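INSTRUCTION: Work out how this chain folds

Fields: amino acid sequence; protein backbone structure tokens

Chain under study, with its fold:
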Amino acid sequence: MLFNSFAFLFAYLPVVLAGYFLLDRWAPVVGKAAPMSWLAAASLFFYAWWDVRYLPLLLGSICVNYWAGRLMGTRSGTARKRVLVLALALNLGLLGWYKYANFFIDSVNSVAASAGAASLPWSGLDIILPIGISFFTFTQIAFLVDCYRGEVREYRFMHYVLFVSYFPHLIAGPVLHHREMMPQFAEPANAHPRAANFAIGMSIFVIGLAKKVLIADNLSPLAIPVFAAGAEPTFIEAWIGVLAYTFQLYFDFSGYSDMAIGLSRLFGVKLPLNFNSPYKAASITEFWRRWHMTLSRFLRDYLYIAMGGSRRGEAIRYRNLMLTMLLGGLWHGAGWTFVIWGGLHGLFLVVQQAWRKVFGAATGRWWPAALTFLAVMLAWVFFRSPDVATAWDILGALVGANGISLPRGLASHAASLAQWGVQPAFDGIRWIELVGPGLPVLLLAMLLAFKAPNTQEIFFQHEPAIERIFQPDGRWRFSWRPTRGWSLGFAALFVACIFGMNRVTEFLYFQF
């Protein structure tokens, strides 16, 4: 079930909200745990809506990890460590089977074919990747490690079910920490309806919906044909397509993050901040502090630091950075394009750290941010491309390897250009969609990403997420207030989104 669908907006969400607050009102009769139990059941229904056959998989994962967490609370020393290792092996094995089994088989078959084997060693498996498996697996791995460290314990099974399956975060994050969420779930006052929560939550949700429906979805037609296998775009088309995907992904993921925070606030629960204007970053390190912040936190706390971080010298530090980002790339998808994408970011981080060690931090009013954005954008080419060959072709097209000409979609303007003495060639992808809102929306997206305040800055006085940004960046310094003007503006934006939902599209991070 998609946040940007009529079924969610006008059926699922109103029913879940009504049940949540009514059960709190009837708590003396049905029990104090009823609102949380209702929300957990609604979250499981939300997951089962995609494919009910995978609900037992989610429930089985929850039960095993809950049991392991409880067991570690009663063990010590070697026995405690054995429980952790077994539980981690089960989680990683489950993720490996569903997400990476076919990638491993394809890689082996590719090597065999290159070696001239008469027949391929293995045939592919008929496996469907369960939606959200990476997110609920990483959430529970963090829980297990925290249990092993003695930092958390959980004795309420239904609260643990809600912690893992909580529908605002279940499909595409953020990756939650047990210690952040459980006090909020256990707070009875959060089940009381509050006008402030509704005003803030719905406003943030509408901003996220607008990012998805009005911006990201309108950029998709510019990116899809350029990244098709064998497209061979020309110079201008390649730049249009790469920029379109760069900002499509930005507003798609930013929109989902806002919608998740807004939805959760309706229930009185604050989620951690997961997105903070990453294209304003002046270094790759800063980019990862702003992009998918909870995943970056997970990789830092449970992988990079666990491998030794920077405690054992520069060479080990660089190795740990590379391994962390390679595994982070592989987490995003089972393919060599994702491995290369992660490797590029690892290389960027290593180069940045080495540069700082020799020359100090980069200074300048604009060029560090411009260089960071260019590096991120070029890496996105591998992230989006269906295969490595297509990625290299697009990178070549960005420097003119496929020729420089105007897209065929502009051929109707040849006569007008000829009057000015300009007679360019029209070649390239004949079916790239240049008619429509794509190009104006791309320009708007660039302006908003680089110059506008983000959602957290607009709502910073009202603490929209667990983290708080005390001072907004940028030249536009204004904040949301519960006034009639703001209400009318968000109502108009919501209506525009409803009329723009003529075609419901999935969020890009659902595939991870």
